[in-house]
Write a structure and sequence with these properties.
homodimer, 259 residues, alpha/beta, 8-stranded mixed sheet, two-stranded antiparallel ribbon, globular
Chain lengths: 259, 259
Amino acid sequence: MVNVEVVKIGSNIVNNAQVLNQFLKDFSQVSGLKILVHGGGSKASELSREMNIPVHMIEGRRVTDEDSLEIVTMVYAGLINKKIVAKLQSYLCNALGLTGADANILAAHKRINSEHDYGYVGDIDWVNIAGLKGLFDAGVVPVFSAITHDGKGQLLNTNADTIAAELAMAIKEHAQVKLTYVFEKKGVLYNREDESSVIKHIDYSIYKDLKAEGIITDGMIPKLDNCFKALEAGVQEINIGGPEMFKVDNELKTKLTWN
Amino acid sequence: MVNVEVVKIGSNIVNNAQVLNQFLKDFSQVSGLKILVHGGGSKASELSREMNIPVHMIEGRRVTDEDSLEIVTMVYAGLINKKIVAKLQSYLCNALGLTGADANILAAHKRINSEHDYGYVGDIDWVNIAGLKGLFDAGVVPVFSAITHDGKGQLLNTNADTIAAELAMAIKEHAQVKLTYVFEKKGVLYNREDESSVIKHIDYSIYKDLKAEGIITDGMIPKLDNCFKALEAGVQEINIGGPEMFKVDNELKTKLTWN
């Protein structure tokens, strides 16, 4: 391992077959060691509805009960992961799909929260770098779905953004790491209504200001908190933008750095 | 690779959580290189029913249309595969779950049948032995679900017995291979009503006699045809029996050989 690129694709990319396909084609062209982490998309919710499995929420956050865990394991680790792997293979990218349980790459524990029980949600304890290196040596491109395990036989639902950040933080001790978040916008926007208002560079002090000014709000906050945690831990640079980043060199995107 | 043990567990083992758990515990104790292949169990049919997806049959054989393929990919490659992997990891067996698409280990083509279209069903073309060796070198125990791909992005439903046999036939060119089919009986029975009537040894000429006499019938015929194809191709010995085989040394079982 010398350079490793960790790329996370969000649910809106996964949901759009055409966009996903073009992204996978471009990703397969990225040279060197690389890892793909994918979000879940809307299929899990659709399936829950079709199967009349109620979605429990606590303060706007989904509770992963046993039925929900079965659904996300089927959809994330089964359907989406394997479709992505088969597509990458067709582009001659030697993909291998994984959960954190496979080859014991991501060990987690069930989230402890004194007020609420969010169910089978996992917080990552450590990344098995030797295991990951073994897979790179075997010549494969790991493709992670957002499922981990506790080492005691229990699968756990884990945020895909967090998995990408934890992988990058662990890899940076052994290699140069590049972390990229791909989503449906061209980057973090000044003005949500204006797709071209991409903020080209955000460091931690700018980030605090943008939050205080109400420019960065809602769902972008946990996303960027997660990024700045990785930057603080020593990941050098994180890029956020649209899938075109992998095709057009000077494509708009947001670069995040600690300083 | 010097010795490799390929073990296939049938649907009735997968369906019984307690039996499956005990088997996985025993399997994790098997020393040396090993591969697990698992059948689907009844969950895919249950899910199809819950989702009101009709099951199409032609002459008693299931047609895998697009909806059915999604279901089996979710259930086999997602739910069952990952539950097995997490359980094996808890027994310190470094399992890694796969379809044939992952690391491009099993390449197949959509079955060609001039009379009927069985849908997305795959017949295996070749086994990627170098890829498999890479995984063994990485120290993992491959766990295959019954899904392959065509290399052009299409996943395919493939019989788990066949996957186990094809793996064994490919491995035997490079290593000593032991192939074992685990199911709910203690072996091939003389008398279906008598669990203790296990036929201890069947070679090809005995097999032909047993079929002619109507002792081996129905579902056992494609199962054993599959085994004798592997034996004819040079796999030395195949054992068929119950999960206790992995715990009790002198447990009843059926040994199959070509001569």
